[in-house]
Each structure stands twice: as C-alpha cells, then as structure tokens.
Amino acid sequence: MKLITGNAPHLRSNDTTEKVMIDVIIALIPAIIGAWYFFGEYALFLILLGAFSGELFELFVMKVLRKDKNFVPNGSAAITGILLAMNVSSATPWWVFLIGLVFALGVAKHAFGGLGMNIFNPALAGRAFLLVSFPVSMTTWYKPVFSFSKWVDIQTMATPLAVLKETGSVNISYWDLFIGNRGGSLGETSVLLLLIGFAYLVVKKRIKIMIPITYISTVFVMSGIFYLVNSSFGSPLFHILSGGLMLGALFMATDMVTSPMTVKGQIIFGIGLGVMTLLIRYFAGYPEGVSLSILLMNAFVPLIDRYTVPKVFGEVKA
To answer: In this structure, is the dihedral angle defined by the CA atoms of residues 260, 298, 60 and 130, taken in order, positive or negative?
Structure first.
C-alpha cells in the first residue's frame, strides 16, 4: 500500500501504542501492589500470569494463526491479562483464569480483527464468560489478609453489595471501603490506590476524563434519589465506593477502543453506564452491575459516535 501525504497542516505526535500501554501499566501498579497486600502472593501470581500469558498468546495468534510476520508485541495483551486478573476473585483457580484470558483475547479481541477493531472490552468480556462458566469460583470472596504472604488463615466473606442485596443494610465504614478492607475482586477493593493510578493517567493525558465524571455523577444522583425514597437501596457514597465501580469507571469504561470519541458521546456513554449499573444492582439477581453495564454500553458506541459527530468547520447546513 502506497502512503500519500497531502498538504499541510498535519498533527504530529511522538506517542506510540507501546508508550500508551506502558503508561497504563504504570498507573495500575498501585492497585497491583494493593491486591498483593490484601489478598496475598496468589493475587500477584494471577496478575503476572495474566500479563505474560496474554502477550505469549497474542504472539501465537498473530504469528501462527494470522500469519503476520511483522507483528511486534505492544503491551495491549498484557494489559488485558492484568485487568482480567484484577476482575476475578482470589478464589479463582489459575487454569480457570487462563480459560477466561484465552476467551478475552481470542474471541473478544482477535475474532473482531485485533487491537482497534474489537467492539467489547476484552477483559470484561473474559470476566463475563468466566462468571457464566465458573460461577462458584467467580463469586467466592476471601477476606483481606493484610500481608504480602498468603500463608495465613483464609476466611471467606460476602461483598458489601451482596450483604446489602440480601439484608437491606450493611455495617461497614466508608473508610474501609475507601482503603480496600473488604471482599471483592483483586484490583477493585482499594479506591485510594485506583485514584492514585488514575491521577497519573490524567497527568499524562491518557484518559477520557469525561466518562468517569459523568458515570460517577450519574450513580451519585440516581442512588441519592433512591436512597431518599428507601434507605435500604444504599447511600450514594456506598454505591460509589463499593464493588467495581471505581475500577470500571477509571480503567475499564475509558478504554480508547470501546468508548465514544466525542465529548458529547462520552457524556451519553457515562450517563448510560450509571443508569444501567444501578438498575442491575437494584433490580437484577446479581448484586454488581459494572462489568455488564460497560459491555452493554460498548455495543452502543458505534451508534453514539455516529449521532454525535461535530459539525465540520465551514459546513453549510442543507
């Protein structure tokens, strides 16, 4: 294919896919350390397994199955593996996790054409597949151990959202929810560590900040209305700090490929995420709704982009 360059002006940048992926991995390091601290060595093992296995599997797909001799690993598969690990329980067997990773990369990503072509977030698609295929492993939660070693007594516990769903009330402090002293997936429990990583991405200008702002704001307003009607629905702050909302809002919904390009589209996307998340939490059988709401809204992204394209400068209205 011959590349023809037209007349100036052109927007030039030194950014590469590899640089962007490295920044995302750096931003995830605080949450990775937190997962190791809260859930022990096995949590770190799953995260590292996801990163290296993801890259190896994608290399196999590109070199052997797709016959792309020029393919060079760019880190995107490693991020998929890390994010999938951060979305599973520490009770998930490593071989179950690898099945989910193969689905995430093989079906949700490369079946659509690879990086930049996938409709759904690969890591969340892998999580949804595991949730349906291995529900016991994916819904068994361990109590944080506060140790860099797994060699301590392990106790199972329900997540705050599950307790609220079953009893209509929950006895846990906002501080424990904020720092991560609760049951949940490996990388979702500590809001503090997620915010530190998110701040790094904002400084590096790697994030679509309008999506998390509208997502979290929608959850706050909508849950506040429900809370005023009936306190058993849970307070706005509880819904923001609980479950995987912060992980989803800051690192999953903002995925460059599967989120809208325009600011107006990102606002619509964020509002839709907030509404769907709470509808699932309130009225569905499953206590959490973040991953499913993101996957559902991913399907609407092409339509959102189509109807929120800004007017071209100088265009005359018909």
So the answer is: positive
C-alpha dist (Å) from residue 291 to 130, 220, 227, 237, 295:
12, 18, 23, 19, 6
Report the DSSP beta bridge partners of residue 142.
156
In the chain, the amino acid numbered 75 is: G
User: Which two tokens mark 147?
Assistant: 């140790």
Is 240 in contact with 216 (CB distance < 8 Å)?
yes
Give this prediction's pTM: 0.91
Amino acid present at 45: F
CA gap 76, 300 in Å, rounded: 23
Looking at the DSSP bridge assignments, the partners of residue 156 are 142
d(CA 25, CA 279): 32
Take residue 18 and report the two structure tokens written for it: 């590899």
User: What CA–CA distance (Å, rounded) separates 18 from 5?
Assistant: 24
In the numeric block, which tokens belong to residue 94?
A: 């490593």
Residue recorded with tokens 């619509």? 268
DSSP H helical ranges for 40-93: 41-60, 76-86
Q: How far apart are CA 299 and CA 292, in angstroms?
A: 11
Q: pLDDT at position 31, please?
A: 96
Reported as a single tens digit per residue, the pLDDT across 276-303 is 999 999 998 888 889 999 999 999 999 9
